[in-house]
Design brief:
Layout (H helix, E strand, L loop, with lengths): L6 H11 L7 E5 L6 H13 L14 E4 L6 H8 L12 H10 L10 E5 L7 H12 L5 E7 L7 H5 L2 E4 L5 H11 L5 H11 L3 H9 L3 H13 L5 H10 L5 H21 L5 H17 L7 H13 L6
Helix pairs in contact: 4-5, 7-8, 8-9, 10-11, 10-12, 11-14, 12-13, 12-14
GO cellular component, one term: DNA polymerase III complex
Protein name: DNA polymerase III subunit delta
InterPro entries: DNA_Rep/Repair_Clamp_Loader, P-loop_NTPase
Length: 315
């Protein structure tokens, strides 16, 4: 089943797969929430399938998926019990080494094997360097699919050894239809706010709704519009984000703040553009550090509010 916006990536992928030499490394690039991992799994199954060989419907022995593991033994037990669990901040070098050991053996069912890394932009530096060796000298019949929300963060040497498959964002009409189908209970104002915040990413729009980010969004826009000289709005923003938000909610708030400033930049006058650009750059830096730094959530929320307030039109 092809998801919304996947027609062009599928056409490019199948044209390549039908050629005489399929490239061994692929970067699936695009905003978070566009269904790139869904595409990767379906594409990997097509790659490893061979005529006359029955394929398992569930986990496939020739498709290796590297992603965030549980944070520790306690969180691993939660996962095994079907409970919500915390993830490690990065994909570690040990996971790459384990994958490379598997590549020393033959595929289980056919002649091909696929390795999916989701997201590849969360690889530790040492893990990325170790992966580079596999990309430089790929095992025969092995194909790499690197899901990347921020492909610019990948090592240039990794990017140079992969073909990029770009996933487009959706227009507002498609986003509205998606939310009407997936979240029919949502009122029109929240739906419009989710569409504006997600900027063409259906997954991010649904995440906006499910995490109830509308109050956070309203406060951020108010701070950008009017500033926050007495720090009251920043305090409300910290409360709306939550006293003890999990890492995913904090990351969602950072992503939302960048989206709010991105939209503000589209209508800002020349006098505000430098301040908005500077604040957006700082938020990009914070968003990149948040997965690995142990930020205090309350202080981080106030920092986000302060950056947003710095872009308001001076009174």
């Amino acid at each position: 089943m092809s998801l919304l916006g996947h027609d062009t990536p599928w056409r490019e992928w199948r044209e390549a797969s039908e050629g005489s030499r399929m490239h061994h490394g692929w970067i699936l690039a695009g905003r978070k929430g566009l269904g790139k991992m869904h595409f990767a799994m379906q594409a990997a199954r097509e790659l490893v399938a061979e005529p006359g060989l029955p394929q398992p419907e569930d986990q496939h022995p020739d498709i290796l998926v590297l992603t965030h593991l549980p944070k520790d033994d306690k969180e691993e037990r939660k996962r095994d019990e079907g409970k919500a669990f915390e993830l490690k901040r990065n994909i570690a070098i040990a996971q790459i080494r384990q994958m490379q050991q598997r590549l020393n053996t033959r595929p289980t069912l056919g002649s091909r094997r696929a390795v999916i890394i989701d997201p590849a932009d969360d690889l530790e530096t040492s893990a990325a360097n170790a992966l580079l060796k596999s990309l430089e000298e790929p095992a025969r019949g092995t194909f790499f699919l690197l899901v990347a929300h921020r492909p610019a963060q990948l090592l240039p040497t990794i990017r140079s050894r992969c073909r990029v498959l770009r996933f487009p964002t959706l227009d507002d009409a498609a986003m509205r239809g998606f939310l009407a189908d997936k979240a029919p209970h949502v009122d029109e104002a929240t739906r419009d706010a989710a569409i504006a915040a997600a900027q063409g990413s259906p997954g991010m729009a649904l995440d906006f709704v499910e995490r109830d980010l509308a109050p956070v969004d309203r406060l951020m826009r108010e701070i950008v519009q009017s500033g926050d000289r007495d720090f009251i709005l920043r305090g409300r923003l910290a409360q709306a984000i939550g006293a003890r938000p999990d890492r995913a909610r904090m990351q969602a708030a950072l992503d939302l703040s960048r989206s709010v400033l991105g939209q503000a930049l589209e209508t800002a006058g020349d006098d505000r553009m430098p301040a908005i650009a500077d604040a957006h750059g700082e938020l990009v830096r914070l968003a990149g550090q948040a997965p690995t730094y142990n930020f205090d959530p309350g202080l981080l929320a106030m920092e986000i509010g302060g950056l947003l307030a710095s872009t308001a039109t001076p009174n």
